[in-house]
Amino acid sequence: MKTNEKQIHEPLFHIVKREPLPIYKSMAIRVIAVAAALLLCSLLSVFLVGANPFDFLKTLFEGTFGSARRLWKFSKDLSVLLCISLAVTPAFRMRFWNIGAEGQTLVGALAAVAVAFYLGKSLPNWLLLILMLLAAVVAGGVFGVLPAIFKAKWNTNETLFTLMMNYVASGLVSYFLVIWTPSGSSVLGALSVGHLPVVLHEYLLLIIIVLILTALMYIYLHYTKQGYEISVVGESENTARYIGIKVGKVIIRTMIVSGAICGLAGFLIVGALDHSITLTTVGGLGFTAIMVSWLAKFNPLIMIGTSAFVAFLQQGSAQISTNLNIDSSFPDMIVGIALFFIIGCEFFIGYQLKFRKSSTQGGKKA
């Protein structure tokens, strides 16, 4: 009989779930991640245009907070992004992956513009605004509920369905722009009707509406029966069915709410900001909102902070692009790098790496 020593080969490391960290530690990790991202971006500016890293950081903050006008613009961008983020949150808490917020917002804006275009000269402004709001909410709700019905009845893939609906919305906008612009330019000028009233500042009413919506969404998700049902369905559909929740009904109802709020965002963009519509009216915010909602763990109050962070990066980096004469894609690169670092730090907050320990096991061989 012969005894051999045999090395056990294990993976170099494996990933295990970490015990919940104290709030100060998790926040410290996030702050470090953001600082590291900004440091990397400042170094990139050195290599790209030979800019001083301190000038980079200074311009980043001045681009957002350097004047009252910039601060108002920051608040406006934050509010629009926050509104769309609130819209996708109920669906995502339910684990319904609504990737169609871009199209739902765009079709809401289209409906609002259509009402203003056809009825603007025959109705008083207050009534016109009510009809624009109703049309936008209904249009967004329809675009939200269609994928929900197919999911509830035939278990279709909601990610693909909602994504494809974005292209349908773009096609509808292109079609109506051709009809509304006989010259063939497909550029609809700013409408002279259907403007939301100005309260102290042109953006203030928009900001107030979104803040009220944020509070209402928080109450809806945390203190109502429907919010409870959304959470249960998100945790386990089987559990939800076991305790008597009608899962299909919850899916359809929640996506009506999600689409309707996207429609509201479209109405606000038209009534308070653009007073017109193009294919780029939403400008990708429907996709950015998904990241904003996820970073906030689907909590509407925390979403104010994540929306502010993303808006700060976008506006500040746009100012850097202008001042330092860097390509216009540079702001997107800065936002991408920052989000990459934040996503990475979220992983390490929730999980840790366990490296293997060398061990031996005796084996007998005849």
Descriptive tags:
two-stranded antiparallel sheet, globular, 4 strands, 13 helices, 366 residues, single chain, mainly alpha, 6% strand
Explain how this protein is built.
By secondary structure, the protein is mainly α. Helices cover 71% and strands 6% of the residues. The chain is built from 13 helices and 4 strands. Strands 1-4 form a two-stranded antiparallel sheet. Mean pLDDT is 87; it is low at 360-366.
Residue share in helix? over 70%
Q: Give the biggest sheet.
A: 2 strands, antiparallel
String of helices and strands? EEHHHHHHHHHHHHHEE
Number of helices: 13
Strand-helix topology:
Elements: E1 2-7, E2 13-17, H1 23-49, H2 53-65, H3 68-93, H4 101-119, H5 125-154, H6 158-180, H7 204-223, H8 225-235, H9 237-242, H10 247-274, H11 285-295, H12 300-323, H13 330-350, E3 351-355, E4 360-365
Antiparallel strand pairs: 1-4, 2-3
Helix pairs in contact: 1-2, 1-13, 2-12, 3-7, 3-8, 3-10, 3-11, 3-12, 4-5, 4-6, 4-10, 4-11, 5-6, 5-10, 7-8, 8-10, 11-12, 12-13
